[in-house]
Design a protein that fits this description.
GO terms for molecular function: polygalacturonase activity. By secondary structure, the chain is mostly beta strands. It is 3% helix and 59% strand. 42% of the residues are buried.
Amino acid sequence: MGCMQNKVLCSSQKAAGFAILDSKNVHISGLTSVDSRKWHISIERSSSVHASKLNIKAPKDSPNTDGIRIQHSTNVTIASSTIKTGDDCIGIGDGSKYININRIFCGPGYGISIGSLGENGIRETVEYVTIRRAHFYTTENGVRIKTWQGGHGYARHIRFERISFSNVIRPIIIDQYSCPPHQHCKNYSTAVEISNIVYNDLRGTTNGEIAVDLSCSESAPCKNIRMKDIHLDYGINGKIYDGHPKSHCLSVVQSWDEGNVYPNVPCLTRKLSY
């Protein structure tokens, strides 16, 4: 049954240009999606999906035009694709497990996001995600984990590896303080738990003040965050300028760094190996 015949189905699809729903063993390659009304590609309640050589485009000022949205799905691979949108290049939502993102060019847009999770106090989970060999160009964010105050569930076993940034405002973000717009963000007693996150070999330039922002919940601190070989300079259009990007930490425990990590992230304990 199609979207026009079923308003509930239509609402769930969020007017996606191309949707993979309740499917197994799906392969797509060479697809181009331009100026979708909302999400360009939606993958929901599916398993063993492999998508490659995608070309996704939308104006940088177009809201809610996520490139790819993954929810309630397992064993999904997105590879060798270019995504230029007005929202997340890739959004990985509730119920996502064993997700592999490899060789993605993202920008403009809002980067690659885990979440947001836990809106309206519900329980949502994401685990076993690897994002590797991505390049972010003039995006608002780079790699982001985003949760709502008062939520439940977890985001865990997530790896970001061999990633480069050019003119990215916020390259590395964990934000556990999402709340409705124009409202005071209260500190709830519950939170989505974030743990076992690895950042390895992330390099490039930022044109923002805070290059690494780990804003974790005071009620459920982030734990086992590991960083190795991070180098983020202040620069624009490939040129390095004077200036020192900063980092911000809140409620991060049992976490450490190795190799060269710049800017320094003070909440991480120095460790020789991991």
